[in-house]
Amino acid sequence: MPSRTDAPGRSGRRVVGWDVGGAHLKACLLEDGAVRDVAQWPCPLWQGLQWLDAALAAARERWPAAWDADTAHRATMTAEMVDVFPTREEGVVRLAVHLAEALGPALRLYSLDGFVEPPAARAHWKEIASANWHASARLVAPRVVDGLLLDIGSTTTDVIACVGGRVKARGLDDAHRLATGELVYHGVVRTPLCALAPRVVLDGRIVNVMNEFFATTADVYRLTGELDAAHDQATPADGGERSVAASRRRIARMVGRDARDLPDAQWLELAQDWRRAQCEEIEGQVLRVASAAGLAADAPLVGAGCGAFLAASIAFRGGRPFRRLADVVPAARGAAWAEVCAPAVAVALLDGED
């Protein structure tokens, strides 16, 4: 059962925070200023908006009372960039219309400048598009003061500096955040393994990696035992099972082998090498962002996302104190999935701070 926790939202009010991603729909139910429940549903929107309808229907079944006239809905998004939309602007507008039809007149969309009504989506599309990172950082910044938010999700990683209790980001949209290192297209579930390293050491030799979508990072973290099965919702590269044996088979394909060619222990060593490569890449971006923000070498790192376990490793490697999201946001304590769905939690809680 979800627990009742203190939160800064308005008492006597029900708010649902939504994070509409290209692969998942995440949501947080806030009642009387307390986080009641947090959930995530698969939502591969590149295959069509019917997936969003299905995920919203699942949310409505889980929280039937949240569709009454007294419920406020606050949404952020990254799904505007999926293939079904010709431009990001059209993605924001169409998602705004779709969500408004499903959630009603109490919907507001998160933008870099605050919440806006759906009819204003076209005028503010640049501030709405992929602003979920900003919501999370805005919630964390005054509570950590000087530090870094490292949100490692299924697909991407956000590296956000907090200085003096405020968000200090050099980039505000995806294009600029990719340039500054604040957005890293690395995640612990969906990232193709060929993106992590062009060569690996196997059986004592350096071998080239196949640039094919044979395996993903979920396969690595199934072998290491770090990926929570509840967070493992994406379809594997071959459409097969989410099992250790199937992951071993997919990883072997990356180097032109079958799993039976080597002992299981060697495939685990290879998975750990890929893990190390991903840690090194993200750690480099953490150092880059921290340096640009003027943060001290011992500034704390706040971990979020389904890859928070990797954030903890990166903090340890860099000698930084590590704190989980629930350590700095009391409202998140005891709420299952709050860490994984940080932007959804953030937009729900920020409703009471605007």
Structure in a nutshell:
This protein has helices at 50-62, 88-103, 125-128, 132-144, 174-180, 217-224, 244-254, 264-293, 308-318, 325-328, 342-350, and strands spanning 14-20, 24-31, 34-42, 71-77, 107-111, 114-116, 147-152, 157-163, 166-167, 183-184, 199-202, 205-208, 301-304, 322-324. The chain is α/β, with parallel strands linked by helices.
CATH superfamily caption of the largest domain: conserved archaeal protein q6m145
Largest sheet: 6 strands, mixed
Count of distinct strands: 14
Instruction: Tell me, rounded to a whole number, the average pLDDT.
Output: 93
**Order of helices and strands, N to C?**
EEEHEHEEHHEEEHEEEHHHEHEHH
Question: How do the strands of the widest beta sheet line up side by side?
Answer: 3-2-1-4-5-6
In angstroms, what separates the terminal alpha carbons? 30 Å
What does this entry look like structurally?
The chain has 354 residues and is of the alpha/beta class. It has two domains: 14-129 and 329-350, ATPase, nucleotide binding domain (Nucleotidyltransferase, domain 5), CATH 3.30.420; 145-320, Nucleotidyltransferase, domain 5 (2-Layer Sandwich), CATH 3.30.420. It contains eleven helices and 14 strands. Strands 3-2-1-4-5-6 form a six-stranded mixed sheet, sandwiched between helices. Strands 7, 8, 9, 10, 13 and 14 form a six-stranded mixed sheet that branches. β4, α2 and β5 form a beta-alpha-beta unit. α6 packs across α7, α6 (217-224) crosses α8 and α8 crosses α9 (308-318). The longest helix is centred in the last third of the chain and has 30 residues, at 264-293. The two termini are 30 Å apart. The relative contact order is 0.16.
